[in-house]
Amino acid sequence: MALVTLEEAKRQLGLRPNEPSPDDVELQLYVDALPKVIEGYVGVVEQRQVTDLLPGSGGGRGRRRQALALLHPPVVSVTSLAGGGYTYPTDSLTVDALSGIVTRSDGSTFPDETFTVTYTAGRAEVPPNIKLAALMLLQHLWRTQRPARSGALAGGGDDYSVQNPIPGMGYAVPNRVLELLQLSDGLPPGVA
Q: pTM (2 decimals)?
């Protein structure tokens, strides 16, 4: 599942989605750049396989930890978890999908060791507010390169204008995109 397809991007820009265009290669570059920006605000959107190496704290023998925090939430499923010379059966784990926190189902703790965790990060489907935010961001970025060719899209004096940056933010991500992303589940506090 793609955050935005080339066809959706062309529709958003008022181009004919089913007709080849000389701009298709460049537009695809913009489409490919969207997930990194959007995911910086709401966590992984497009599902992908991830492997994290979670180091222990070095606190010494016998120390235990209640949970493991995966680095790329949200999490669809854990494929494997190994550490301290032991491989944990995935059916013995509980995963908080939004935060990416893994605990043992029986309430036991994990040793303070280095763990290797392989999992599927992302969402089952793109929420509508995230899809719309991505399309609006695409439109904004596209017109920064084409203000003269964009006709009606080039005007405006609000946060969408490529002439008026947001103080402290520049103008890569307009306020209206940020507001849409704030409506999602986003990242839990403390996760960057």
A: 0.75
